[in-house]
Predict the 3D structure of the following.
Amino acid sequence: MADFIVLVHAPVLGPASWQPVGDELTRAGHHVEVPALTGFADGQPPYAPRLIAAFARQVAAAVGEAGRPGRIVLVLHSGAGPFAAQLAAAVPGGRASVVFADAGLPSPSGPTPVVDAGFLPYLRQIACEGTVPPWPQWFPDADPADLFPAEAARAAVLADARPLPLSFFEETLPPAPGEPVSAAGYLLFSEGYQPEAEQARERGWPVAELAGTHLHPLAAPAEVAAAVASLAARLDPGLAG
């Protein structure tokens, strides 16, 4: 049976950041879902459990529609990475293989923060009255042309991005039951995530590299789709850890 590939966007972005890759994987014959996690911060904290619940509802419905797909492979971009164990536990069957795509990693032991403690001071600095601005505004001196291949892609990503409560980034993820990640690999796009790719190598995971920016899935969706499929095919349940 074919793998069921779930492309999970960063909490600060939206499904538009993965949709071009999803379209390529669908054309290649894969079962694909790109859940929309936007809106999880509506209402009161805690926010992380609401994000996980939104993911679980959409993936369960998509898997049900697909009939009897094979292995579930989660492809987690950027800030979705720390949620790996919780998201894998939330899929039908409670286990999934995971590809981290230019993503943060969960703590190897103990609780995992939503955001690395070293980055929190910057978020607190740019927050206004407890609200962090949309991700595209985090780095005002950056040239948008360096991240977005075309105006249409930029507009789609900006339409998804929303301000988020600072308290969301200060949360610690709830523990995941059991050992829900059955296998893992790493797909590196940008220089900033080299340390995470190196940690993946140290854990014995397969690592693939595509030279690009953090939003390489928008710039080269066919290349990223091929790399996702290739890396997912290499995952061995014995590599989890």
About this structure: Residues 191 and 213 are 8 Å apart (CA to CA). Residues 48-66 form the longest helix (19 residues). The first strand starts at residue 4 and ends at 8. The two ends are 25 Å apart (CA to CA).
